[in-house]
Design brief:
single chain, alpha/beta, 6-stranded parallel beta sheet, 10 helices, globular
C-alpha cells in the first residue's frame, strides 16, 4: 500500500530532444543505408538490445525468415551484443543470422539513434522487462513498435495507437504483426503518426522529473 507509480512510469523518462529523427539528415540516413546494403525501398525492422534467447531473438529470426519467403524488400537490423555464454541463441538462429543477407548484425553501438533513424518498425519480442528504454527511444524517433504482452512494454505501447502487442514466445504472432506492418500501409502510417507524440506526452524526462519533485514535496 506504500507503493506509488510516478507519472506514467519509467525511472528517468526520455530526452525527446536527443531522441529525435529530425536531427539526422536524409543524406546521413542514405549514407548509412548504403553502408549496410539497405535499399531505399526496403522496409526495415530493427531490434535493439542483447542478442539472446530471453529477448525473443529465436522467434524473431524465424518469423523474419518466413516473412522473407513471401515478402521481398525487407531488412532486419540487429543492434546489440551477443552473449553466447549467458543465454545463447539456437544453432539454427545463429546460422540464419550469419547466412541471411537481409539480416544485418551491427553489434553493440554507443549511439543507437542513427540505426533507429533508418528503420521503420521496432520489433521487441522480449520475455520479460522492467520498463524498457528502447521502446520509448524508438517511439521518440517516430517508430511504431511490435512488443510482447509483458510489464512495461504493454504500458508504453497502446494497441492500435503507437504499436501492436503480441503474445510472447510466439514466432507466428511476430510474423503476422510484421506482415501487417508491411502490407497495411494505412495501419502503419496511423501508428507512425502517433508514435512520437505518445512518448513526448507521457514519458518526456521533464514530466518524470516534475513527478519526482512533487512526490518529494508531498513527503
Amino acid at each position: 500500500e506504500k507503493l506509488n507509480v510516478l507519472a506514467n512510469g519509467s525511472s528517468n523518462g526520455i530526452n525527446t530532444s536527443y531522441f529525435d529523427a529530425s536531427i539526422f539528415s536524409e543524406k546521413e540516413n542514405n549514407t548509412l543505408k548504403v553502408k549496410l546494403n539497405i535499399n531505399q525501398d526496403d522496409f526495415v525492422f530493427i531490434f535493439v538490445g542483447r542478442i539472446v534467447a530471453d529477448k525473443g531473438i529465436n522467434e524473431l529470426v524465424e518469423a523474419f525468415r518466413n516473412l522473407g519467403k513471401k515478402t521481398k524488400k525487407i531488412k532486419l537490423v540487429l543492434v546489440g551484443p551477443f552473449e553466447i555464454e549467458l543465454d545463447s541463441l539456437s544453432e539454427n538462429t545463429l546460422n540464419e543470422i550469419e547466412r541471411n543477407l537481409d539480416i544485418i548484425n551491427v553489434g553493440f553501438q554507443d549511439d543507437v539513434r542513427p540505426y533507429l533513424a533508418i528503420s521503420d518498425v521496432l520489433v521487441f519480442p522480449s520475455y520479460r522487462e522492467g520498463f524498457p528504454n528502447v521502446v520509448m527511444q524508438a517511439g521518440a524517433m517516430g517508430l511504431p513498435s511490435i512488443v510482447t504482452n509483458i510489464n512495461g512494454c504493454n504500458e508504453i505501447i497502446k494497441e492500435g495507437e503507437n504499436g501492436t502487442i503480441i503474445t510472447k514466445k510466439n514466432s507466428i504472432a511476430i510474423y503476422e504483426a510484421m506482415k501487417k506492418m508491411v502490407e497495411n500501409v494505412a495501419f502503419y502510417n496511423q501508428l507512425k503518426e502517433n508514435s512520437r507524440k505518445r512518448i513526448v506526452d507521457h514519458y518526456e524526462q521533464k514530466v518524470v522529473w516534475n513527478a519526482i519533485l512533487n512526490e518529494y514535496k508531498k513527503l
